[in-house]
Amino acid sequence: MQKNQTFKLKRKPKIIGSYTIVGPKEGKGNFGPYFDYVMKNDYFGEKTFEKAERKMIESAVTGVIQNAKLQTKDIDMMIAGDLLNQIISSSYAARAFKFPFLGVYGACSTMAESYAVASVLVDGGYFDNVVCCTGSHFSTAERQYRFPLELGNQRPPTSQWTVTGAGASVISLSGDGPCISAVTFGKVVDYGVNDVNNMGAAMAPAARDTLLAHFLNTKTTPDDYDLIITGDLGKLGSEILIDLMEEDGITLGVNYGDCGQMYYKREQKTLCGASGAGCCATAFNSYIIKKIKEGQYKKVLFLPTGALLSSISTQQGDTIPCVCHAIVIEKE
Amino acid sequence: MEDKQRNEAYNKYVSAKIPKTKAWPSLFNSFWVGGLICVLGQGINDLLLLAFPNLSMQTAWALTLITLIFLASFLTGLGVYDQIGKFAGGGSIVPITGFSNSITSPSIEFKSEGIIYGICVKMFTIAGPVIVFGVASSMVVGFIYWIISLF
Amino acid sequence: MQIFLDYLWVFLVGGFVCMLGEILIITTNITSARILVTFVLIGVFLEAIDVFDYISDFAKAGINVPIIGFGASLAKGAIGAVKTHGFLGIFTGGLTATAGGIAAAIGFAFLFGLIFKSHTKK
Hints:
heterotrimer; A: about 325 residues; alpha/beta; Peroxisomal Thiolase, Chain A, domain 1; 6-stranded mixed β-sheet; 10 helices; 16 strands; about 35% helix; about 20% strand; globular; C: about 120 residues; mainly alpha; about 0% strand
């Protein structure tokens, strides 16, 4: 018998503040008007892209504390992650603050992972205000996972575009905002896909696994949610997820969406859409939070997926293991 | 065992699902851009021979290639070559300019890690195999000719 | 008229060779390093079986500018050096013949690496 992966949070921790910062290309995308800050260029006034990513996370944390109408001294804990090796962007950003720091890594699912950990900690009564932050940068990810920026190569049609951006939230029991009512921690799933340019196909089975577990444990169906949103499966991956769920007899209808697919406009030529830890972090903390507050969505199932590969595992011919964590956000 | 079958079935399903893009436009672009780069090379070569009539054929070709390598390297630095590459694909990878681009691009990219460990070490991340395979295979060919010449 | 025909051949052969590279990219999704290696090996092979010069006679830059030409000079250098220097030629021939190109590529890459900064893709 499987152990329960889903936890209902009795005290319903709230997302009392959210903040997003993105790059210029993202600012021109579909969520453009909802972001708090759009950078003028990808260097963000720094010498290297890595330093720019670090500064982005720092500004997101500073921004979210203001947005939550708190002060730095009110924060008990910071949970953050990014895509770089040894999650340096988050750790170095945390150096600037005097909070206890937990670094988390779930590739593109990092935002949900940090929400899940934070909300459990807050719900348990151990911490009052926890900052969650996740970011990614196109240029740093590109050179870590793929090729130098100036190399004249073509991207395969299934490839996705790493988002330059960081999103942050403050989770707390006191204050106003949408609340997190349940969390499902995902298992690592690998269906033997080894094409690094086709992340959507690799991650879709992980999303299916978590979705099935979540529906089973909470005794809900897709119709119970106003919005079911995956992170960065992209165009191809989300189509695959719909097919996979169909096999299990569950229909994902019009209330299903994917941040990666919705992120960029068609003329921005990103092929299968957006990806990266910053993708769902910025989309969620801008557009989705706003729509929940406005009352357009009352109950949202947010389940970003992450591909847990590294360039070394790829070169050794390994397949891509993936994970997906789900959280339920409700209007209070 | 079940997992293996499941994975095979899934991979099969995925490869059928991948969107098929039209190949003709990209083939056409690679054709004319690649052809144009070669015509440019021929032009430089002819001009060199016109300006310095007593150059040997071999010297003229070497100078032509060096000019093309310079141009591609410079365009890479300006951030233009990767855009040509995005458009033309094979058309700008296969010519010697693509080789130049593949050395210059990591050199610029990894400058942030310093001159020794950045530029110098990472310069050959893409072009290294080209030089290794090229030199090794030329040694094989040379060796075969040496054996033949013994008899 | 002759010069026009010459350039037409250069364009057609050069374009065709590059298109072969693009076909490889589309069908197998291989990276540019592998494409370059493949074409260098094709060049070495064409020279080794003594076919390259026949193509080069009418295609000129059409076959010399693609990296196939680089492979051919490597092989040609090795063969020539074996003829003149014997055994030592196996080692010195290839790199001697291509020294100009390799040195230029490294030198300019170093220079521009120092000068320029990388740009984010659009």
